[in-house]
């Protein structure tokens, strides 16, 4: 796991783990096509993470942003989802500026543990207990997505929901390996607390990236 700050890293180079064109599988944007960019490096290290190979930034080749942009602008959806790892370990001001100049919609997935850089059309914050989110980041979120592993995570969800803005979409998502146990509990919770919606990892059901 990456434990040192990389904020001083060149804004023109990023350690890219993978990039591909697919459908958004979870959250408010489920079903929409987008180009996915996974940046290596993570300071959170969730035990349930299904892409632990993204944690160590040193394992991924540094790629110039201009090269990445050339591939992104060719995708038909004209949208990119930036995820990790934790993408906000990096300064993405230049990255966002260039893509905005090419009329690309920018969607960010972050734990909220690091300050936001760049300008985004949509910010999804999925906070984790082992590296707490910043309240100011929660206030910027368009979407709050809480992964539910056990029943105590419902209290965690409500604690984070206190800090989001009134337009933020609230979602509960079962952790994949425990979904059969937690799914009925989530359904029951949402029926009693209708401000929440359910998020499913539909890409796993569809067997797509």
Using brief descriptors, characterize the structure shown.
disordered N terminus, single chain, 209 residues, nine-stranded mixed beta sheet, alpha/beta, 6 helices
Strand order across the largest sheet: 3-1-2-4-5-6-7-8-9
Mean pLDDT: 93
What is the first-to-last residue Cα distance?
23 Å
The sequence of SSEs as H and E is EEEHEHEEHEHEHEH
Summarize the amount of helix as a percent range: 10-25%
What integer value in Å does the Rg equal?
17 Å
Per DSSP, the total helix count is: 6
Number of strands: 9
- Uncertain segments are 1-5
Strand content: 15-25%
Q: Give a quick account of the main beta sheet: strands, pairing sense, barrel closure.
A: 9 strands, mixed
Shape: globular
Structural class: alpha/beta
What does this structure look like?
With 209 residues, this protein is α/β, with parallel strands linked by helices. Helix content is 25%, strand content 24%. It has a nine-stranded mixed β-sheet with strand order 3-1-2-4-5-6-7-8-9. Helix 4 links the parallel strand 7 and strand 8 (169-174). Helix 1 (65-72) runs parallel beside helix 2. The model is unreliable at 1-5 (pLDDT under 50).
């Amino acid at each position: 796991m990456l434990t040192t700050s990389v904020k001083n890293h060149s804004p023109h180079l990023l350690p890219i783990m993978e990039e591909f064109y697919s459908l958004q599988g979870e959250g408010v944007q489920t079903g929409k096509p987008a180009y996915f960019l996974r940046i290596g490096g993570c300071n959170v290290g969730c035990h349930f993470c299904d892409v632990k190979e993204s944690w160590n930034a040193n394992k991924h080749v540094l790629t110039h942003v201009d090269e990445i942009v050339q591939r992104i602008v060719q995708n038909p959806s004209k949208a990119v989802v930036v995820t990790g790892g934790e993408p906000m370990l990096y300064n993405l001001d230049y990255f966002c500026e260039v893509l905005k100049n090419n009329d690309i919609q920018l969607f960010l997935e972050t734990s909220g543990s690091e300050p936001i850089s760049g300008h985004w059309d949509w910010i999804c914050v999925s906070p984790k207990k082992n590296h707490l989110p910043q309240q100011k980041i929660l206030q910027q979120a368009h979407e709050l997505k809480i992964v539910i592993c056990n029943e105590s995570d419902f209290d965690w969800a409500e604690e984070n929901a206190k800090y989001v803005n009134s337009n933020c979409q609230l979602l509960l998502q079962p952790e994949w390996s425990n979904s059969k146990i937690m799914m009925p509990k989530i359904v029951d919770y949402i029926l009693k607390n209708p401000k929440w919606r359910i998020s499913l990892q539909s890409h796993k059901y569809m067997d797509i990236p």
